[in-house]
Structure formats: structure tokens, C-alpha cells
Amino acid sequence: MPGCFKCTLFLFIAVLSFISFILILIALGTQKWMAAKILCKTGAELVNATDPELVKFMGEIYYGLFGGGKMRQCGLGGRHSRFTIFPHLVKTLNTALHVVIIFFLCMAFSFALTSLGFCILNIIKVPYRAIKGPAGIALWNLLAGVFAVLAVTSFMAAVQLHNLTERIANFQENIFQFVILDEQYEHSFWLSVASATVHGVNLLLVAISVIHFPALKTKTEEANVTAEDIMY
């Protein structure tokens, strides 16, 4: 494979690794991992609300890994509030699982930066006594992708198996009880999924970089054949 083509692939992998790092950073910093519609069950039962009247008892909630916001309606108009996961709300959640999600994401963007650094080292050919070359780049992308997948899977487990949205919606609610009507993953969650996908693409590019393509040979000029060449 021509050296310039391999360097171009490494440069492209470096750009994708940097994009993955930015995606995870945005996912950590924004609070739009999950959004849901909530129903004030207690208020609706107090007035025996029917289907058309239930709209007055429906609110919304959104949250991320560090905080979020809620708009609650219990028949007296909407009330907006904001909350933070740390240090109080995390006590009502599965603390270990929530911290593990953040840890996995931190590891994912750390390895994404490591992949970026190794790509640059391979492009400029700086001697480095560690795992380098395509094998090293593949290793760091594999680790980054695995940790991103683990973070996404752990968050889905917290939502589906540990009723994360319902726990957050009922945080510090002593009188009213809220139930979840509908919930959906928001852009911060999908940014983490995109980050894992980017590392999958990087692994494919690394595999392409180790393929040895046949070198293009220029057609040599035909030699002049003389009578002596024919005889001998």
C-alpha cells in the first residue's frame, strides 16, 4: 500500500476519533438523555378526571446524567422546576449503576483521545516505545467503542429495569404521585450511540490500512530485438 494512502487513512481515523471525543463530551455536558410525559395520578384520582380532563394533569420531564427539569401539572396549572442528580437525587437512584455510566463515558472519551494521539504518531512517524501502528490504533478504538457501548447499555438498563424516569419524577414528591405515560431517548443518548458507531468505522478503516494492495507498475518499453537475439 502506498505510504500516502495509509497516512490519509490514519488522518481520517484521527479526525473521527476527535469527533467521537466531542460527541461524548457534549453527551456528558447536556441534560437531554431522556424525555417523558408524566401524569399526576394523585390529582387525577382526587377529582375523578376523565380522558378529556387528563390533559390538565399531564406534565413533562427531561434529564441527563447530572440534572434536568420537570413541568408538573396537578390541575392547578403548570409548575416548572429544575433538579440536579448530585448530591441528593442520586441517593434515590441506583447509585452504583449511575456512577458506572459516567465512568464508562469518561473511559470512552479518554481512549478516543488516545486513538487520536496514536494516529498522529503514526502519521509523523515519531518513534514511540509502546503499541503502535495499526494494531495500537485498533486497540484504542476497540476499547473506546466497548466503553461507549457499555455506557449506553447501562443507561438503558437503568431506565428499563430500575425505573429511572419514575424515580426522578417522584423525587421529593410527598403528596402527589406521578406515573410515566411515554418516554423516549433524546439527542444526548444518541450522541453516545454515534460515538460507538464512529469507533466501529475506525476499526474498519484500520482493517483496510493493513491490506497490501499491489503496486502499480509502469509499462516498460519494449526492447529492440536484433538478429543476434533471435539466433541465441
From TrEMBL:
<feature type="transmembrane region" description="Helical">
    <location>
        <begin position="136"/>
        <end position="159"/>
    </location>
</feature>
<keyword id="KW-0472">Membrane</keyword>
<dbReference type="Pfam" id="PF25807">
    <property type="entry name" value="Clarin-2"/>
</dbReference>
<feature type="transmembrane region" description="Helical">
    <location>
        <begin position="96"/>
        <end position="124"/>
    </location>
</feature>
<dbReference type="GO" id="GO:0016020">
    <property type="term" value="C:membrane"/>
</dbReference>
<feature type="transmembrane region" description="Helical">
    <location>
        <begin position="7"/>
        <end position="28"/>
    </location>
</feature>
<comment type="similarity">
    <text>Belongs to the clarin family.</text>
</comment>
<keyword id="KW-1133">Transmembrane helix</keyword>
<feature type="transmembrane region" description="Helical">
    <location>
        <begin position="189"/>
        <end position="211"/>
    </location>
</feature>
<dbReference type="InterPro" id="IPR026748">
    <property type="entry name" value="Clarin"/>
</dbReference>
<protein>
    <submittedName>
        <fullName>Clarin-2</fullName>
    </submittedName>
</protein>
<dbReference type="GO" id="GO:0007605">
    <property type="term" value="P:sensory perception of sound"/>
</dbReference>
<keyword id="KW-0812">Transmembrane</keyword>
